[in-house]
Amino acid sequence: MEYNVMITGVGGQGSVLASRIVANAAMFAGYEVRTSDTIGMAQRGGSVISHVRFGDCIASPLIANGNVDILLGFELAEAVRGLKMLKPDGMAVVNEQVIVPPSVYAGISEYHEAEIKDFLEATVPHLHLFNAVQIARQAGHWKSTNIVLIGALSQIEDFPLNSDQLLESIIQTVPAKMKELNERAFRMGIRHMEELKNGHK
Amino acid sequence: MQKQLLMGNEAIARGAVEAGVEVVTAYPGTPSSEIFSTLAKFAKQYNYQAEWSSNEKVALEVAAGAAYTGARCMVTMKQVGLNVAADPLMTLAYIGVKGGMVLAVADDPGPHSSQNEQDTRAFAKFAKLPVFDPSSPQEAKDMTKYAFGLSEELELPVFIRPTTRICHGCADVTLETIPDPDKRPKHTFEKDPKWAIMPKLSYEKHKWLSLQQEKMREIFNGLSFNRIESGNEIGIVASGLSYQYVKDALNALEIPATVLKIGTPYPLPDRPVKEFFNKVNKVLIIEEQDPVVEEQMIQLAFAQGFRISISGKLDGIVPREGEFNVDKVMKMIQRFLGTAEGEETSISLPPLPVRQPALCAGCPHRASFFAFKEAAKGLDAVFTGDIGCYTLGVTAPLQALDTCLCMGAGITMAAGLNKVEPKRSQVAFIGDSTFFHTGIPGLINCVYNKANITIVVLDNDTTAMTGYQPHPGLNVNAVGEQTIGISIPAIVKACGVEFLEIVDPNDFEKAKKVACAAMAYDGLAVVIMKAPCIKIKREKKMFSVKADLCTNCQICIKKLGCPSLFVSNGKVQVDETCTGCGLCTYVCPQNAIQEVVQDGI
After folding, report:
1. CATH at A27
2. Is B163 exposed, middle or buried (0-12, 13-18, 19+ CB in 10 A)?
3. Contact between B397 and A62 using a beta-carbon 8 Å cutoff
4. What residue in A sits closest to B355 (Cα-Cα)?
5. Distance in angstroms (rounded) separating the CA atoms of residues B354 and B346
6. Fold for domain B543-595?
7. What is the ipTM of this complex?
8. Could you say which DSSP state residue B592 is in?
9. The architecture CATH gives domain B2-221
10. Which of A35, A39, A115 sits opposite B31 (nearest CB)?
C-alpha cells in the first residue's frame, strides 16, 4: 500500500500544519510516513507545496509526477498548479477561494478566475470544489480553513485514514487554546461533505 | 520502541540529545534553523547550554572552546554560514577537539531560501574533515548520534550535512533513550601547548590531519550508512537523499540495478567501492550539487586499475545545479542506459498568476522602504539590500532594493558604490539581527573611511525570516532567560556617527521627513526604523475602503503591494488579513481607506 497526498496553497494558509496533521494521523494508523514542506522564504505569501506520503514502505519524500492520489488545494489557482502531479483518476478537494497575488496588480501576470475554474472542473473527474474559507469563518476564524479541508478530506471514499485518527492528530498538533475552534472547523468540513453526498442522492 | 513524527531538523536535535550534548551554539539560517530551535526548547529539561550566537564564526569558536574541555558540542548553521565560520574551522581541523564536536550544516539545493547552492561536502573535503550525508530523518538522527563518538575517536570536528528536503521533511523516527545529564563526567581545560597554533605546530598537525584521513576512511569502510544493495550488472551510486529518489526511480522503471548507497561522501570508503566495481560493468553516480563522490570514485578507479565507465556530472548526465526528484532521476537513469526517456504526459495548464513571496500585510519594512522611496524621488539613489525578510523589498511593486549579496554586504557595498559615484545617493538597508551578525564591522569601516552614505537599520525586534529567533539586541536569550540587550543606537553613537535618528516607520509622515533629512545630510547618516515584526506584535486595528469614495485608481495596491488589498466589483477592498498598519491611508488620494470601528475583537 502507498498513498500520496499533495497540499498546494499560498504561504500563510496553514498548509504545513495540515501536512503534519495528516502525517501524524498516518503514523498513528501504523504506516511509514514521509513528508516534504515548503518552509522559508516562500512562506511569505508565495506558492507552497506539501507532499505527504504514507504506506508500507516509502522511500522518497517527494511524490513523482502523476502519482498524487488526492490533491488538497487551499486556493483555486494553486490547486491547478498542482494538477500535473495528480493521477489520471486522482481526487481533488479544493477551496474555491481566490487570492490575487500582488504581481497581478503590478501588471506582471494575470489571474483568469473563470478559465482556471473551468479547467479544474473539466480536468478532474472527482472534484470537490467548495468555499472552505466561508465555512471556516462560520466555525470562528478564517485561519481554520486548513482544518475544514482536512474534515472534507476525511470523508473521501477509500481515503485510508478515518476521521477519528485525523481528529486525534489535530488535537495533538494544534495549540491548546485553538483546539475548540479547530474541532468545530473539522466537524463542519465533515458536515459539508455529508450534505453534499445527501444532496446528490 | 517509541516512534514519533519528526522533522529532519528535529531528528538531528534528538540525535544530539541522545548523544548527551552539553553545549549547543548556532546562528539561524534556512533550512537549518529548527535544529537549534528544537535544542533550545529542551535545554533546561536535559540540562545543556544553548545559545544563539551573534554569527557563525562566533558560534563555532564558542563551541570549540567548550570542546577543548571535553564537553560534547554541536554547532548549527546553513551552508553560507559556514563561509563566515571558515576561519576558525580551517585551523580547528589542525588543532582538533577533545569533546565530540558535530557541525550540522544544512545545504539548500534548488535553492529554496539561499543565495547559492554551495556544497558542504566539498567544504568538508577542503577542510579535511569527515562528513555524513543523511538520506532520511531517521538516518539523520542515527548519524548525528554516531558522529559525537566518531569526533572523539578522531579528535576532529565531524560534519552532518542534511539538505532542505531532509531538514524540512517529516518521517516516523524511532526514539532511543536520553542519557542522564547528572551522570556526565566533569570536564576541565587542561593546559597544553597543543591548543595554541604556531607555524611549527601547524606543520606537525597538518601531517597528523593527513594521516587521520586514512583512519576516517577505514572507519567508514565498516559503517552500514555505506552499503551495496545487490542487483544486476548496472551500477548506480547515490549519496544522501538521492538514494531515496534512486530507489523510487528504479522501482518505477523496473530496473534491478545494483545500488551503492553512500552515507559518508568524504572521505569516500574504498572497500565498498572496490567491491561494487567488481560487481557491475558500468556506473552512474547520482548526487545533488558537486561531483564530490564522483571525483573520488574516478580517482580510485584509475589508481586501482579498474577499467570501468563512470557517468555522472562530468559527462553531463547528472546536473550540478538545482535539486533532484524522482522524475529527474528517472530521466538521468534513462539517459545513462540509452533507453527512451518517458514521454511528458503532464497536462498543459491554463496561464496561472505569478505568486512570489512578499512582505506580510502590515510589515513595518514596507513602510520603511516606501518612506525612502518617496524621499528619493528624482534622486536616482541606489538602495543596497541585505539578507532577511526585507530582501523581499526587491520584488514588485516595491522594487526598493538594487543589490543583495550576503550577510552584512548592504552597508559595505554602499560604501564601495559611494567611492566611485560620490555625488549619487546610496542607502543601505540592514536588519537588526544582520546588524549584529556582520553589520557592525561595515559601520565601523564607513565611519573610519568617511563613507558618505545612509544606513537604515530595520529594527523589528527579531530574526523574522528564519522563524522569529531572538538576537543580541533583545533582553531575552535563546533559552528564555533575561539578559542584557545591546542597544543599536548606543553602538552607532560609540562608532562616532553624528547623524542618528530613530523613528517608527508606521508614523509615516515623520519617517519620510527623517528619510529626506538623512539622504540630504553630508556625511554618514544612520536611521533606525523601529517597529516590531507584525507576527510578534500587532495593533488591534483594521482598515476598510469606503466604496463611495474609492475611484478604483488602485494607487494603494500598485505602490505598496500589500497582500490585504484586492479589487472586487470595481472597488479596492481590504480583506481580513489586514493588521492595521494604516500605510495605505497615506497613499490613497481620495482618503477612502479608513479605520474600522470594531466592537471588541
Report:
1. 3.40.920.10
2. buried
3. no
4. A46
5. 20
6. Alpha-Beta Plaits (3.30.70)
7. 0.95
8. -
9. 3-Layer(aba) Sandwich (3.40)
10. A39
